[in-house]
Specification:
11 helices; mainly alpha
Length: about 270
């Protein structure tokens, strides 16, 4: 219809009408483009908000695992310190027989929490990380996940420390004491030591284990290394927890802002 009108105007040499028709066409195209772009941008903002929700869910699921790692490392550092105390005073082991047996067996155990990075890796692999327009958020996410990756270089050293302790401590506990720890707890937690019935431990057998422990100078010399290992685990996981809470705070604030803008503003005016 527009083409026919323009052709008629041209034949009639009605140039003003031709100009008007051209302007109408241009304005119509511009409006159509703007509306299309508006919906495209709004769709990207909705997708961005969905990604932010998923990132928040991933990191929130990390918090209990990180806190658990801190609690375990703290318990195991206490175990190492208990063994150091037994070196100076064997009676300490008889006052705390359950803890002594558990300490010989597990003071060098380590636990590294596995972080949930599904959403972040998905965004990186698909190129959708571009949807996050806030550079502070991107920086915090990279800092959080790269910190975890950087810790991988230290895990072989942790395994070596554990293995060395197992080698030096082999035979300190008798058959029954080892089975007690394995069957009752497998991995000892702070709650286990509180709830366990100490009557299940024969103090005579514990006293003999103490003698075997104190007769091993290499093992005794190694205990401070075990304590240092757990101290590092506490520091690393406290830093990991700090970073998790920091990025969560930023993401939650940004989610609220995004949701408000999606409802009230066009994407061209979004942050």
């Amino acid at each position: 219809m527009i083409i026919k009108r323009m052709a008629r105007f041209i034949r009639q040499h009605d140039w003003s009408a031709v100009v008007v028709e051209i302007i109408v066409v241009i304005v119509g195209l511009m409006l159509a483009f703007q509306i299309d772009r508006w919906w495209e941008q709004r769709g990207e903002r909705v997708q961005e908000a969905e990604y932010v929700d998923r990132l928040i869910g991933d990191i929130e699921s990390d918090l209990p695992n990180i806190e658990h790692a801190i609690n375990l490392a703290s318990l195991r550092m206490d175990m190492a310190e208990l063994l150091m105390a037994v070196v100076d005073d064997p009676a300490v082991a008889l006052d705390r027989p359950i803890e002594f047996v558990a300490s010989v067996h597990q003071s060098a155990f380590t636990y590294s929490p596995s972080l949930t990075s599904h959403t972040f890796e998905d965004m990186r692999s698909t190129g959708n990380l571009r949807l996050l327009r806030d550079l502070t958020i991107k920086g915090a996410l990279y800092d959080y996940y790269n910190f975890d990756v950087n810790q991988d270089q230290f895990r072989p050293l942790q395994f070596l420390t554990e293995a060395r302790h197992f080698e030096l401590a082999a035979g300190v506990l008798d058959y029954k004491q080892q089975l007690l720890v394995q069957d009752e707890w497998y991995v000892v937690t702070p709650e286990d030591l509180v709830e366990f019935d100490a009557s299940q431990v024969d103090l005579v057998d514990v006293e003999m284990a103490v003698e075997r422990f104190r007769s091993r100078p290499d093992l005794i010399a190694w205990i401070p290394e075990v304590r240092h290992l757990q101290l590092e685990q506490i520091f690393v996981n406290e830093e990991r927890l700090r970073k998790a809470n920091e990025v969560l705070e930023i993401l939650r604030a940004y989610r609220d802002l995004l949701n408000d803008r999606i409802e009230t503003q066009a994407p061209s005016n979004a942050p």
